[in-house]
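User: I've been going back and forth on whether these two constructs are worth ordering. Before I decide, could you fold them both?

Assistant: Sure. I'll take them in the order you sent them. The first construct and its structure tokens:
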Amino acid sequence: MNIVCLDMEGVLVPEIWIAFSEESGIPELKRTTRDEPDYDKLMRWRLGILKEHGLGLPQIQEVISRIEPLPGAREFLDSLREKTQVIILSDTFEEFAMPLMKKLGYPSLFCNSLEVAPDGEITGFKMRIENSKLTTVKGLQSIGFDTIAAGDSYNDLGMIKASKAGFLFKSTEQIKNDNPDLPAYEEFDDLLNAIVSAL
């Protein structure tokens, strides 16, 4: 049995931190997993910047409430879910993702959680499991699933390469050049056709 594992930010919805960076006027927050492979290091750096500027979860959620899925993402997901099971594997946090899941028709989402003080300050984060995307794919395989994966960033490469078929989607030129063996797509229709062919 097949199951498709998709990254969320940059694939189905815009990057939350980039949107927040633009609205808050803090350019340093544009840095994502496309730029920094070490997620723990990236998140600790982000939390330091938020603290420095006195910003917390309410301000980020306000921006997220205005984010729309990428054009065609909902239709892509609906078409894919007619053909096979789909799980969104994301290093984002449930406190960020839930409004976006509503706009995507509530697909299954495996992500992480934030530690938030009563005043809204984000004091830390709790990863669901170490190396969550690759670990989850291996877990699914251990219970009889064949996985097909797609993502755009460094933290997606493990699950993509461990799957029976894997694709880069809307990735960077650097990542595509570093991984010439991985098929890379820019349009949802092309990714859908590639996934369906691999089923």
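The second construct, handled the same way:
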Amino acid sequence: MPEFKKYFTLSYDDGLEQDKQTIVLMKKYGIRGTFNLNSALLGEKSNIEYTGTIGFKNVDPSIVKKGLIKTAPANRIPADEIRQVYEGFELATHGAHHLNMRKLGKEETETEILKDREALAQYTDLPVVGHAFPFGSKSPALREVLKNNGFLYARALGSTKGKGEDRFAFPENQLDFAPTCWHIDKNIKELFEEFLSITPTKGDMLFYMWGHGYEFDFDVMKKREIIKTMEWMFDRVANDDAIISCTNAEAFMGHSSANT
């Protein structure tokens, strides 16, 4: 019987200032991961509101100044800091301008993705082979661009379904797959415990967690001790020889090479 592997990887969107603290924690435990950037928006400043019912949304700056609602900063790391901040981590495309891909034509889609990849390549020594759908938005044109231009994987939103080992199976379609979980999910600790407890018998297993840095800043997340839970997860990964901590690309390349 072949010996199957267990992979653990992170995926963070938008290239936010909060990534710096996440990276400090990742480096403390030797955790690898991927950051999905919008190259045309580097250095842009904005604020995010947590609505509770529909999630998170951008807020008009004039409302923020009046102090009418509670928001978290969503300031993007400027271009001259990108290489230093993300050194050693994978960068992936997230659309140059973070646009809704459903609203773009074929030519616009190609420009939005390939220009983003071209720009990000100057900030990293690792190949830019991944994509995270902005707003989770997809289109036939986008699928064609990813397929025809050598992208290895593309992450959607949502979370995987199923029970036991099947919940952590590698996706059949690497260019359109749901992550295992969002880092603010309420059941994340139980889900991770399940991942730890299973010895794979059907194939390689993947725990793929995604999020945005600003989500840590809201009071409801602080009360749920999201960062504390993440550090607990990182410590378990660092001390479990059965788990491979890796970038998104390393997970898919490792899985593919083991099955060829």
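Notes on the second construct follow. The chain has a mean pLDDT of 93. The chain is about 35% helix and 15% strand.
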